[in-house]
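In the design runs reported in the main text, the only information available to the sequence generator was the tokenized backbone. The following block is the verbatim input for one such run; it is reproduced so that readers can re-run the procedure and compare outputs position by position.
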């Protein structure tokens, strides 16, 4: 049987995750903890006996470095690695660089909560989760899914919100459900798909 394997991993902790700042497309690096999380993700996947044929990531350093570290631990640094900004984090617009508490002081608790946790309300100059899905899902359907359905084993290292867009479709979640779904940093989610692209099984390798 063809093993239609898709593994999604949110990048390890970044400098701005640690400082509780809105990051978006700002290109920040991993913390020491984030490096450790990425390496641990690679070791967990190696422990599952998984080998990959191709890897996808965003163009942002925290995701590409996470991918590099995972592949290093897997001993699979030679596989093709495809970078595309379609997989970038949600753009938080005017919130980028602000501490989440500062944003609440400036715009109010309720408004910031709406921007962060509603599906289709975008912060000023930024994207809603629906906007993020509108660029992530076509890329998934055109570039990633066909490889999985051909039997290639695919690894995707990306971001909390770009991966939420995929998880929403794969797990068949509604807009209200997906905004509440937290994706841990450096936690591999292993999907095996049916021939019709629905999910046959899912394994979450949380610690």
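Verbatim output:
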């Amino acid at each position: 049987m063809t093993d239609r394997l898709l593994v999604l991993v949110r990048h390890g902790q970044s400098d701005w995750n640690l400082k509780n700042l809105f990051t978006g497309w700002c290109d920040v690096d991993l913390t020491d903890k984030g490096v450790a999380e990425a390496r641990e993700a690679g070791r967990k996947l190696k422990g599952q006996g998984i080998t990959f044929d191709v890897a996808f990531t965003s163009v942002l350093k925290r995701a590409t470095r996470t991918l590099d570290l995972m592949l290093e631990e897997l001993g699979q640094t030679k596989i093709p690695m495809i970078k595309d900004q379609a997989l970038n984090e949600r753009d938080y617009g005017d919130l980028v660089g602000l501490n989440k508490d500062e944003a609440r002081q400036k715009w109010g608790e309720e408004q910031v909560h709406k921007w962060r946790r509603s599906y289709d309300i975008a912060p000023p100059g930024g994207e809603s989760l629906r906007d993020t899905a509108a660029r992530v899902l076509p890329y998934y359907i055109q570039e990633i899914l066909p490889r999985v359905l051909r039997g290639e084993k695919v690894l995707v290292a990306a971001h909390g919100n770009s991966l939420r867009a995929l998880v929403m479709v794969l797990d068949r979640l509604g807009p209200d459900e997906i905004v509440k779904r937290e994706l841990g940093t450096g936690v591999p989610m292993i999907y095996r798909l049916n021939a019709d692209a629905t999910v046959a099984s899912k394994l979450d390798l949380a610690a």
